[in-house]
Each structure stands twice: as C-alpha cells, then as structure tokens.
C-alpha cells in the first residue's frame, strides 16, 4: 500500500499598508518565492472594518485593537495565498518576530522593518499562525477559493 500524497498546505499572507506604501510588496513576494513556496492567489484591496474585525477577532478588546484596525485601513493591503509543505510555520519564520526592533536580521521584519513610534507596531506582514487560522483567514480574504 502506498502513502497518500500530503494535501498541500496553504497560508494567508498579508502585506500590510506600510509594506505596500514603502514599495516592499515585490521584495516580500520575492522572498516567499525564493524560499520555494508557490503564490496561489494575490489581490490588492482596501480592507473594510467588517473584514478586519473578523480577521483580528482574537484581539478584540485589547488596547492595540482599534489602532491596529485603523492602521490596516490606512492604505491598500496585498493579500496572498502561498502554498507548499510547511508553509504556515515556514512563512512565520521568514516574517520574524512581531516587534521589528527585535526581529532577527535575515527576516522580513528584521531586515525591512523598524519602530516608527506609531500607536501600533507596523511590521509589514501578517502570516496565519496555525492550520485552523489559515483555513479561516483564506475564506475571509479569498471567499472564492
Ligand atoms: P500577525 O498576526 O500580523 O502575523 O502578527 P503576529 O502573529 O506576529 O502578532 P499578533 O500577536 O497576532 O498581533 C497581531 C498584530 O497586532 C499588532 N500588535 N501590536 N503590543 C502591540 O502594540 C501589538 N501587539 C500586536 C501587530 O501589528 C501584530 O502583527
Ligand atoms: Mg497573529
């Protein structure tokens, strides 16, 4: 009996408004592809409050929640579905620590991000943190997939 081929893993990546504004979308997509992951879907959009409240539901009530939603509506977001074995933790490794001051050099946040003294940390990218989050978030940002 032969083993089934594993179902290909998918994650949701967002290039946040700071990344789009700074012209880093291409560099961030380049790093995802250079790592060997496949871009399955890409969309530039203006996120609505309803979408962001669902996307960040786990953070509702935290002190940074409203500044975070404001920041995420400060310009267009590039939403990406990336695919490949291990892509969920793999993209989190590429992204680096949440705080760009602490993120290791070599990571997206460590190489390209910094503290700008804003109300909420601007850290260039989002990546799903678990298979459950990935499924939920992909259905929010790409309902047709
Ligand atoms: P993300 O969800 O965006 O990939 O980032 P993450 O997992 O590294 O961080 P998470 O804890 O999920 O927080 C989501 C986003 O909220 C903002 N944040 N600000 N104390 C703060 O000022 C603070 N904590 C979180 C960041 O934009 C973070 O990416
Ligand atoms: Mg998170």
UniProtKB/TrEMBL annotation:
Pfam families: NDK
Xref: SMART domains: NDK
NCBIfam families from the UniProt entry: PRK00668.1 (NF001908)
Domain Nucleoside diphosphate kinase-like: 8-145
SUPFAM superfamilies: Nucleoside diphosphate kinase, NDK (SSF54919)
MF term (GO), any: nucleoside diphosphate kinase activity
Assigned protein family: Belongs to the NDK family.
Higher taxonomy: Bacteria, Bacillati, Actinomycetota, Actinomycetes, Micrococcales
Keyword Lipoprotein: no
Subcellular localization(s) per the UniProt record: Cytoplasm
Main location: cytoplasm
Name of the protein in question: Nucleoside diphosphate kinase
Keyword GTP-binding among record annotations: no
Keywords noted in UniProt: ATP-binding, Cytoplasm, Kinase, Magnesium, Metal-binding, Nucleotide metabolism, Nucleotide-binding, Phosphoprotein, Transferase
Recorded catalytic activity of this chain's protein: a 2'-deoxyribonucleoside 5'-diphosphate + ATP = a 2'-deoxyribonucleoside 5'-triphosphate + ADP; a ribonucleoside 5'-diphosphate + ATP = a ribonucleoside 5'-triphosphate + ADP
Cofactor section: Mg(2+)
Binding of ATP, residues: 16, 64, 92, 98, 109, 123
Quaternary context: Homotetramer.
Its biological purpose: Major role in the synthesis of nucleoside triphosphates other than ATP. The ATP gamma phosphate is transferred to the NDP beta phosphate via a ping-pong mechanism, using a phosphorylated active-site intermediate.
Annotated organism of origin: Myceligenerans pegani
Domain of life of the source: Bacteria
Catalytic residues as annotated in Swiss-Prot or TrEMBL: 126
Entry EC number(s): 2.7.4.6
């Amino acid at each position: 009996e032969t083993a089934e081929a594993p179902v290909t893993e998918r994650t949701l990546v967002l290039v946040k408004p700071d990344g789009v504004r700074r012209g880093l979308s291409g560099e961030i997509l380049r790093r995802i592809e250079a790592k060997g992951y496949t871009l399955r879907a890409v969309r530039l959009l203006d996120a609505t409050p309803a979408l962001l409240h669902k996307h960040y539901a786990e953070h509702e009530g935290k002190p940074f929640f409203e500044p975070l939603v404001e920041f995420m509506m400060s310009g267009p977001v590039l939403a990406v579905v990336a695919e490949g074995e291990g892509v969920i933790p793999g993209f989190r490794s590429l992204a680096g620590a949440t705080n760009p001051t602490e993120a290791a050099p070599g990571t997206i946040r460590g190489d390209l991000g910094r503290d700008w003294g804003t109300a909420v940390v601007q850290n260039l990218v989002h990546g799903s943190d678990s298979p459950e989050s990935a499924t939920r978030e992909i259905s929010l940002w790409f309902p047709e997939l």
